[in-house]
Amino acid sequence: IAAAFRPKLLAGRKVLITAGPTYEAIDAVRGITNRSSGKMGYAVATAALELGAEVMLVSGPTSLPRPAGTQLIDVTSASEMFDAVKQHASRSDMFIGVAAVADYRVAQPSKQKIKKSDAALTLELIPNPDILAYVASLPKPPFCVGFAAESEKLAEHAGAKRKKKNIPLLAANLAQNAIGNDDNELVLFDESGEHALPRADKLTLARALMRHAVALYMKGNRK
Ligand code: CTP
Ligand code: CA
Fold it and tell me: Which cofactors are required for activity (predicted)?
């Protein structure tokens, strides 16, 4: 009910969101993935919808239901996520990268199941494209919001990450607080410094993040 009274600050705006983990195949049955439930990304999608946005959610494998009202594009690997984002990024007003994208994929995944043996097995991993950095470097980028999962030195790593990716806003959390939990703590980093959001459930945090993002977006603050 409260949502009905929220001002529709993003009416007519397109918001593109990535969420969940990606899965990089090793063979027909095995793969490499990241720990992510998708809850934070889906909460951000819901918060954007409440603000009246047209929301496209590019999601890696999760067990969550599609937030009603969003357009969902299901993907598995980082390459598939990248392709989906490339198709829609330039037509979006805002891009929010919440996905825990695998940084590497297996160089030569096997079509058949690899049979185990007593010998050690070495996998060659090659880097995946950085989807957020790609979107941020488009000629006319949408307003970009990044997430950072860190295990230590949150402020140092997250502040550096925001500058390196050249994005106006980054939400950082400690992986040990966030993964799979319903509650989380977020620290927002923007040009004016850092803003800690109090511990709350993910939808409450997503709404606070979206309010902050919209305020910067309206100000035309694009760095
Ligand atoms: N991201 C992305 N594509 C990748 C890797 C990360 O779009 N291939 C995005 C994530 O969705 C997130 C942000 O970049 O919004 C930061 O992700 P994170 O894993 O914290 O940082 P990395 O830049 O990958 O650095 P590292 O994992 O070494 O900390
Ligand atoms: Ca990473």
Answer: FMN; Mg(2+)
For residue 37, list its beta bridge partners. Answer: none
Distance from C-alpha of 130 to C-alpha of 143, rounded to nearest angstrom:
17
Specify binding-site residues for CTP: 103, 113, 129-132, 147, 161, 165
Nearest CA to ligand 1 atom 18: 148
Closest CA to 134 of 168, 90, 91: 90
For the CA atoms of the chain, what is the radius of gyration? 18
Domain containing 95 — which CATH number? 3.40.50.10300
Best of 147, 163, 167 for a ligand 1 pocket test (most atoms within 8 Å of beta carbon): 147
> Tell me: the pLDDT tens digits for 113-166?
999 999 999 999 999 999 999 999 999 999 999 999 898 999 899 999 999 999
- Report the complex ipTM: 0.99
pTM for this model (two decimals) = 0.95
Q: 148 CA to middle of ligand 1, Å?
A: 7
Reduced to 3 states (helix: H, G, I; strand: E, B; else coil), residue 175 is: helix
Number of structural domains found in the chain: 1
Range of the domain at 98: 2-108+123-219
**Is residue 221 flagged as an active site residue?**
no
| Separation of CA 104 and ligand 2 centre (Å) | 9
